[in-house]
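=== Structural record ===
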Amino acid sequence: MPEVLEILALACTGLYSGYMIAFMSGVMPALKEVDDASFTLVMRVVNRKVPGPLFLLLFLGSLAFPAASFFVEPDGRAAVDTTLVGVAAVCALVGHLITSGGNVPLNNALEASKGRGGDRAARTAFEGRWAALHVLRTLCATAAFVLVALAVTG
């Protein structure tokens, strides 16, 4: 069982980190080049579509599996590997707090702004703050993955 948790922790943190990096390095730079109406339309649609089953599995699994792996140690795991998994869980938790306390409220505000003024104002209130928070949560997700990988291969 402990080894299965480590594999699930590695898979979820790796896939989640990759998803976040792809969004940061591809989607957001592409959207930076479109007009305000297109930007707000696409981000509203993305914000409704992203929290689907696969995303939620990776989002929740990237925290739950490292945490579970920390508490259910396999025989022979070195103390340093346990520490790495624990720090990975903390990194994932910080990323999730950024998401729930920063990105999600901005998503909700963008959705609520629909039909209440211009797309320019909505984009201005959303884009810079959202992107900065996304970079932070991407760094947290990537750190979690690297730490789990080091623990599993250590």
